[in-house]
Structures are given as structure tokens and as C-alpha cells.
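Complex 283.
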Amino acid sequence: MYIGMIKKEVLARLKRIALDCREDILKMTTEANSGHPGGSLSAIDIIVALYFHKLNIRPHNPNWADRDRFILSKGHSCPALYSCLARRGYFPLAWLKGFRNIGSPLQGHPELGKCPGIEASSGPLGQGLGVGVGMALAARLDKKKHRIYVMIGDGECDEGNIWESAMAASHFRLANLTAILDHNGLQIDGWNRDVMEIEPIAAKFKAFGWAVIEADGHDFSHIIEALTLAGKIKNRPSIIIAKTIKGKGVAMMENKAEWHGRPCTGSELKVCLVELEKNGKNG
Ligand SMILES: Cc1ncc(C[n+]2csc(CCOP(=O)(O)OP(=O)(O)O)c2C)c(N)n1
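Predicted structure with thiamine diphosphate bound:
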């Protein structure tokens, strides 16, 4: 399935951007002394692939009617989204410094109407997929060609309204809707298997009538290929089940629930930034 058709330079560029975004995520959360680094680091490669390769968007005209839509349903991972939006030109990079400050457009969870590029408010888990279903139906009614992408978390799949939305998307045959599951295995305070088992998640979505595509959520060639395949699915919604690692890219954070909602201290940040830079240089 992964036939290596994506140019080396494209992959190298996306990797470099993702590295910069990882630095942003760590700096923003440390500066705010709050926020969610773990799930932001697991999601970032996918969000970079969307904003820097896939989405048909116009950052200087964020409300352009024909744009593709991306909804971050797991809204706590918004440092990843804010970093991408800034680097893609929706707003100045300097705004990242105000993350979680009172009055800042970059609140601790995305807020529609406050920050350019945010397509839906999110934070209360479970809602984004339903919003995406509504947008996909609206696009069809308006005879528009744009696509709707919704990122959900695996802990988020504990929410019943994810499954109501999954049923509706399939009932309405929403081929213009692609969900992306950030499947890092961890949720707020432990492994899914200990808190609430969601496996076999691929079989569950298949049973709900979805086309299921599996991918490595940190390999840009996989992610891009999966997004291309999703665009070719007819008559039903698609989901990319992306295998990811919570805290990916920073050894002390990887696969540890404790980093779900805790930022680095100043001295930890220095260590993490050195590690990221070293990894970047080594490709
Ligand atoms: C309705 C609702 N219940 C509880 C929370 C608190 N909460 C925030 S993040 C989270 C865990 C989410 O896990 P997952 O979707 O796997 O996120 P990830 O590991 O990718 O960060 C919880 C329970 C919430 N935001 N919304």
C-alpha cells in the first residue's frame, strides 16, 4: 500500500516543520505552565501533513467557502494545531507566546470565532465528529467539493456520541468525511486497555459501515498515502487509524500518561529542546 511515491524533499520539509512545531508545543506549554504536551506530540505529524500537504485552504482568507475543514475534536491537543496555523500563516508566530493567557485568541481549548483557522470549538470530548457530520451534510447540500477531516482521540472513543456520529456518517454515506484516530493507546491517566478497552477498533468502525485505513501516524509517507486513499473512497465515510506514540519525539515523555496534562519545567524544557534539535540534525 505504501509505495514510496512521495518525493524525498517533500518528506524532509514536513519533518523539519514537525520538529519546529514540537519545539513550539513544548515552549508554549512551559511558558503557560499548563496544557497538554503528550497528545499534542502524538498528533503533530498528522496535523502537519494536513496543513502543509493535504488541505485545500487559503490562510489569508480563512473563511473561504470552498476550503477543506479540519476539526480537532480532541481539543486539548490544540498547541499542535495553533503551532501549525501560525506556521501556515493564519496568524503571527508571536501569538503562540500568549497561549492560555486571559484574553488571548489561543485558549486552552480551541474557540470558534476567536482564532483564525479554528473551524469548531472543542474540548468537551466526543463532539467534533458530530460537528463534522453536519459540515459534510452541508457540503453535500451546497454541492461543494471540499472535504471534512476530524481528528479524534482513542480515549475520546469512550464517549457515546462518537458512536452516534459514526452511525449517522455511515447512514448518510458521507464519503466527504474522513476521521483520523490518534491511536496512542493512552488517555488521561492510563492505558485504554486498563481504563476502557476500545479494541478491536478497526472492526468496530467497519461494522458501523466505515472504510478503515491503517497507518503509522509518525511516518509522513504513510500519512499522505492514507489521506490519498481516503479521498478515493466512495459512498461511505473513512477513518484513518493512525498508530501513534503519546509524547512522540521526546524520550522522557514517550508512552507516559503523566505527560497528558503536565508541562515541562524550565530545566526539563532545555533538555527536551536539545534532544529535538539533535534528532532533527540526525534526520
Ligand atoms: C466530555 C469530557 N470528559 C472528560 C474530559 C477530560 N479529558 C480531557 S483529555 C481526556 C483524555 C482523552 O484521551 P485521548 O482522547 O486518548 O487523548 P490523547 O491521549 O490523544 O491526548 C479527558 C478524559 C473532557 N475534556 N471532556
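The longest strand covers residues 177-183.
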